Amino acid sequence: MWKGRRKILLFGTSISPRCFKSLQSPSRPYNCSYFANKKAWMNTEIMTTILSKLNHQLKCHNRHILLFMYNAPCHPQTLSGQFSNITVLFLLKNTTSKSQPLDAGIIANWRVLYRKRMLQYVFSLVDGEKNASEIVKSINVLMAIEWGRQA
């Protein structure tokens, strides 16, 4: 059966962060997909890799999707005919003002949930010996990933 929920994609600058050493699969912390590059941004190579994997999964389940993308440098126009089970359509230029409010609301809600988990962690460890700023400095990428996944 096809499960429509996709894995979380994470981007960082370090190829193998130290906090991933104890994991069985360092490239998939908490069952998320982790990608590294100099600026910690999406790029064409990563986008193509992700869509290739998705296309393979769709083939296995005999599913087809229509994927709307906006005109970003990491979304090359060549993606539109590259996959058998994914039809890529690009939004018209200057449509960000129409779609951005939705993005902003989703991102704002996620940030609230993430920060709530971080504050719960900090408050649970604050005592007379440690202050909040020391505790915040001890937070690592793996902890942030778990809180983000929960959010």
Biggest sheet strand line-up: 1-2
| Mass-distribution shape | globular
Q: Secondary-structure element order, as H and E?
A: EEHEEHHH
How many helix segments?
4
- The number of strands is 4
| pLDDT < 50 runs, ≥5 residues | none
Span between N and C termini?
Answer: 26 Å
Rg, nearest Å: 19 Å
Notable characteristics:
single chain, 151 residues, two-stranded parallel sheet, 4 helices
Descriptive account of the structure:
42% of the residues lie in helices and 12% in strands. It has 151 residues and is α/β, with parallel strands linked by helices. The strands form two sheets. Strands 1-2 form a two-stranded parallel sheet. Helix 2 (96-125) crosses helix 4 (141-150). The radius of gyration is 19 Å and the shape is globular. The mean pLDDT is 81.
